[in-house]
Design goal:
Largest sheet: 7 strands, mixed
Strand order of the largest sheet: 2-3-4-1-7-8-9
Helix content: 25-40%
Radius of gyration: 30 Å
Number of strands: 21
Mean pLDDT: 89
Structural class: alpha+beta
């Protein structure tokens, strides 16, 4: 008998139906030589500290660091979980072969492997790896099963991630709670510290501090109105300074040109193209859903997961925006499957996926199809199944995925960019404009209800400039300009506008997800952001859960769409002395090594050695640093660190505590 283990009951039921295992039993289906069962998420987990040794049951600094000689797992959950595990265990005990039908990713591989280990699996194990749950994909997957050993590096990466989270999370949380938390015993506040959670919180706290400490500056901009077009003065400025820093200076410039004509010195037009928005990975989908619909990252993940399980979209927990070459021949079938729902498909139906250039061929761009940019899974796209039986929110998410998929097969948008230079007296002026010559892919979004092409691009809220100014009344480079001629001249109206610098914006879930993806760096360029993903903090599948944990632990709250750090969250970040625990960049480098393990480029044992060393260092930092502890003399202040010694924060009130270090 062949035993198939799926990731959840609904997926197991569908796989059983495809395989012809129609007979229902308690916890599994049977038939046609197969038994199909399922897990409930994380059936197994690493042991808790006290399950390794009694010495780790009590929280004390003397017992830290806790580093097991060998990590072990257990069945984790309620009676229902244990019941299902025993069903799996009994089926595996009698199996001739096991097929891992778990979630096709790092976490899914780990979940399944731990279940087989705990169940004492001795028979051969094969791996089902599919990009969607359509009947065709499942049948193709079963025809191309691979040996479990081919996914060993994937499992090792997942295991190192789990062990790393355990080592740093357990040790750092205990160390900081014991040393710095208020209260005692059961009343003591637990300071939860995590490998990804803490640097993510640190991003929010840092941004909030930048906003609260922001000092606005006043400056002036010189513009001039010529033929109902606002030209901007091009006045040289020094770094970090503004050209006009006083009203008197600005007025003097106005007076110097107000009676002089404005002369057009250059009119330059350049044709350009705009490519369609990239296909979605999970993070970019979460970003757009947050901006467009206000969905949380977790909500978007649940919606796209549901669409995947309904066989309407492909595997969602992906970090690539590209498709592999083998998808290209299937595109006409996918488009044909959704044509009744999207009139934008009609112009594409006569095109063939023959890979040849020409008007009769579907385009095959390297911006869409690139095997080098695809590893285990490709971008999120429709499966071509009829998109029926969706909730209203699921349809919103599906529409985004489908429209992006359709748009990449349309022609590129052709534009004309115009730059006009002018001069009045000794002052140069400039204005830019743009005209859409052929809309190309933009018609896909213009025809969508309540949508526009503008909504497909990242908004300016991703900007991370503490001195950004209000430019709502400046010239808009997306507007077309009047027909200017070089050499023409005429009267104009100079305008002096007072401006005030504004602070950076609070993070939203959308911008925080982008910051996690790029290890805290602001990157608006799609190609550069793609290159930095390997150094991001967390994985696409885990970032939503990290943000949810910050909510649950009351480290952050929502104010409209803005994320604010609570006093508890701010205090935690200020308390943490280890740069490793707060640095998005360092955590991103760690994430990069996990990906290298997944590719077989870095040894898991070497990474484990680094983990143990880092954990010991974090604990040592806490043990040797007295700052933040309650003063042993007055019992009211806390210990602070000076240049050469520790002292009490109440030294101005007369506390005499002092100790060199």
């Amino acid at each position: 008998m062949i035993v198939c283990v799926a990731e959840k009951p609904s997926v197991g039921a569908y796989i059983a139906n495809v395989l012809g295992a129609k007979q229902r039993h308690d916890g599994y289906f049977e038939g046609n030589g197969y038994q199909v069962t399922w897990t409930f998420g994380h059936l197994c987990a690493l042991l808790d500290p006290q399950e390794y040794t009694e010495q780790w049951k009590a929280w004390s600094l003397s017992s830290l660091p806790m580093i097991p000689q060998r990590f072990s797992i257990k069945v984790s959950g309620d009676a229902g979980v244990h019941k299902q595990f025993n069903i799996i265990k009994n089926l595996i005990a009698e199996a001739d072969e096991v097929i891992n039908c778990g979630d096709a990713g790092q976490e899914g591989e780990l979940i399944q492997r731990w279940v087989y280990q705990q169940a004492g699996c001795k028979c051969p194990v094969k791996r089902l790896w599919v990009n969607s749950l359509t009947e065709e994909a499942i049948r193709d997957g079963f025809a191309q099963l691979k040996d479990q050993s081919e996914y060993q590096h994937l499992y090792e990466a997942g295991m190192m991630r789990a062990i790393g989270d355990w080592l740093l999370g357990m040790n750092a949380t205990r160390a900081y709670t014991i040393r710095y938390a208020r209260g005692s015993g059961r009343d003591r506040q637990v300071l939860s510290v995590g490998r990804v959670q803490t640097p993510t919180l640190a991003l929010v706290v840092k941004r909030q501090a930048e906003i609260e400490n922001f000092v606005p500056r006043t400056y002036w901009e010189l513009k001039t109105d010529y033929r109902n077009t606002l030209f901007n003065a091009q006045i040289p400025v020094e770094e970090d300074e503004y050209a006009i820093t006083s009203e008197e200076q600005g007025q003097a410039l106005v007076d110097s040109i107000k009676d002089m004509p404005l002369t057009i010195t250059s009119v330059e037009k350049k044709k350009g193209i705009e490519s369609a928005p990239k296909l979605y990975d999970l993070t970019s989908l979460q970003v757009d859903c947050n901006k467009k619909y206000g969905f949380s990252a977790e909500q978007t993940l649940q919606l796209i997961q549901s669409l995947y399980e309904k066989r309407l979209t492909t595997y969602p927990r992906v970090d690539t925006t590209y498709l592999s070459d083998d998808i290209y021949p299937k595109v006409p079938g996918t488009l044909n499957g959704i044509k009744d729902y999207y009139p934008q498909v009609a112009p594409l139906l006569s095109l063939k996926a023959d890979g040849k250039k020409g008007a009769s061929s579907l385009p095959k761009s390297k911006k869409v199809f690139d095997n080098k940019k695809v590893t285990d899974h490709h971008a999120i796209i429709p499966t071509g199944q009829r998109p029926d039986a969706m909730t209203a929110d699921e349809k919103k998410v599906y529409d985004l995925v489908a429209l992006h998929f359709i748009a990449v097969f349309y022609p590129e948008c052709e534009v004309s960019n115009t730059t006009v230079l002018a001069k009045a007296g000794e002052i140069d002026f400039k204005v830019t404009g743009r005209e859409v010559l052929k809309p190309g892919w933009r018609v896909v979004f213009e025809k969508a209800q309540g949508d526009s092409a503008q909504n497909t691009k990242d908004s300016s809220e991703d900007a991370d400039n503490p001195d950004s100014s209000d430019s709502s009344d400046s010239s808009d480079s997306s507007k077309s300009l009047p027909a200017f001629t070089k050499g023409e001249s005429g009267p104009h109206v100079p305008l002096l506008k007072e401006k005030t610098t504004t602070p950076p914006k609070y993070y939203t879930e959308a911008t925080l997800l982008r910051a996690m993806e790029t290890a805290g760096k602001t990157v608006e360029n799609d190609e550069l952001r793609e290159a930095m993903k390997e150094n991001g903090i967390g994985r696409p599948s885990t970032r939503a859960a990290i943000i949810e944990k910050l909510y649950q632990r009351k480290y952050i709250v929502k104010n409209g769409k803005s994320l604010r750090a609570t006093e508890t969250g701010i205090n935690l970040i200020h308390t943490i002395i280890s740069p490793l625990l707060k640095s998005a960049e360092l955590t991103g480098l760690w994430e990069k090594k996990l990906r290298e393990i997944e590719r077989g480029e870095y040894a898991a044992q070497d990474f484990l050695a680094e983990l143990k060393e880092m954990t010991s260092g974090v604990v040592k930092d806490v043990k040797t640093n007295k700052a933040g502890m309650l003063c042993p003399v007055c019992r009211q202040g806390v210990i602070i660190r000076g240049n050469t010694r520790y002292g009490c924060s109440r030294w101005r009130e007369g506390c005499t505590y002092a100790e060199p270090f």
